[in-house]
């Protein structure tokens, strides 16, 4: 009887040990977008990342969308500390790797496919390594937040002359202040939560955002005019804690890379769909949408790029060589 009991205890202990031994680590993945994959590029990216990783490894992925773990700056700090393993971020990347801000040079990308070719090629690989050295975070893949466009409630914009005197809400980021000033507008930094009220009361005349954001936040009901100038292409960075990634087996690392790459592509697809659908919807609901000609876009580019390039060069110092690297990559992709 005693021997039978010992066998049962031993069998249970071995089973428990085996289960513990094969259990993989857990990844906490955070982002600030909604969870709905049909309307949220980061939401879609997070879900497909989870499905691939859990389907092809013993690693568990817990998703924390909609700022559940804090804002992007909070997420960056958490991933650096290792309390969160993976994050999908956009604007916050420039705060831990200033060089990443060169991707925000206005009118640098003439189309999304050009941006994809640049980011998914040698330039993107080199930038990822550079930012890893600066921040300690490994960029696994690039996603997309979309091209930003101007809206306003005063007049149709077809040239920089039409921007003169317009009070445009911008993020409290110097690059955007320089951009709007160079075009003759009056940049007005306002907290995101205050934008609708600022539009309604006339504190601002307009704002700038991707079309999906404009539609989903009902800005088209508060603004009459939209110009699809695509002045800045927003990039998502899917980043992972270095120490966590390095402790994984080569097989699991390959799965993580594959999942991140696919997640970035999914995010781009959702963003492209939302943009196309958003343009149709805002127009159908009464917003005047203008698509500038190449000649008109060149007028905007001729004013905005020198101002922002000068500011960036001053900020980057020796790393200003990256501006030339980006120019070369864009030229190659365009050809």
Automatic annotation (TrEMBL):
Family per similarity comment: Belongs to the bacterial solute-binding protein 7 family.
Record flagged with keyword Transport: yes
Native source organism of the sequence: Desulforhopalus singaporensis
GO BP terms: transmembrane transport
Taxonomic placement: Bacteria, Pseudomonadati, Thermodesulfobacteriota, Desulfobulbia, Desulfobulbales
Pfam families given in the database record: DctP
InterPro entries: DctP_fam (IPR018389), TRAP_DctP (IPR004682), TRAP_DctP_sf (IPR038404)
Signal peptide: 1-23
Presence of keyword Transport: yes
GO CC terms: outer membrane-bounded periplasmic space
PANTHER family recorded: C4-DICARBOXYLATE-BINDING PROTEIN DCTB, PTHR33376
Keywords: Receptor, Signal, Transport
Name listed for the protein in its UniProt record: Tripartite ATP-independent transporter solute receptor, DctP family
């Amino acid at each position: 009887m005693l021997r039978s009991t010992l066998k049962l205890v031993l069998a249970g202990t071995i089973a428990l040990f085996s289960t513990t031994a094969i259990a993989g680590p857990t990844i906490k993945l955070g982002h600030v977008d909604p969870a709905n994959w049909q309307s949220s590029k980061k939401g879609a990216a997070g879900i497909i990342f989870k499905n691939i990783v859990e389907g092809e490894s013993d690693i568990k992925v817990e998703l924390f969308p909609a700022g559940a773990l804090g804002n992007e700056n909070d997420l960056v700090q958490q991933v650096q500390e290792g309390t969160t393993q993976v994050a999908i971020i956009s604007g916050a990347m420039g705060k831990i790797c200033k060089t990443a801000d060169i991707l925000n040079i206005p009118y640098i990308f003439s189309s999304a496919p050009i941006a994809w070719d640049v980011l998914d090629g040698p330039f993107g690989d080199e930038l990822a390594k550079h930012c890893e050295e600066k921040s300690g975070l490994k960029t696994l893949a690039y996603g997309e937040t979309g091209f930003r466009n101007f809206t306003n409630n005063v007049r149709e914009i077809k040239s920089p002359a039409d921007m003169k005197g317009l009070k445009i809400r911008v993020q409290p980021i110097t690059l955007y202040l320089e951009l709007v000033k160079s075009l003759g507008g009056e940049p007005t930094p306002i907290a995101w939560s205050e934008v609708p009220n600022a539009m309604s009361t006339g504190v601002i005349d307009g704002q700038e955002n991707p079309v999906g954001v404009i539609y989903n936040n009902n800005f088209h009901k508060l603004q009459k005019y939209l110009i699809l100038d695509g002045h800045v292409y927003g990039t998502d960075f899917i980043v992972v804690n270095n120490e966590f990634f390095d402790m994984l087996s080569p097989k699991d690392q390959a799965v993580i890379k594959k999942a991140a790459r696919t997640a970035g592509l999914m995010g781009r697809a959702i963003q492209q769909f939302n943009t196309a659908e958003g343009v149709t919807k805002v127009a159908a609901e009464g917003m005047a949408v203008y698509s500038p000609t190449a000649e008109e876009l060149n007028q905007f580019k001729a004013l905005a790029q020198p101002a922002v390039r000068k500011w960036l060069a001053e900020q980057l110092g020796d790393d200003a060589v990256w501006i030339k690297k980006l120019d070369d990559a864009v030229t190659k992709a365009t050809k």
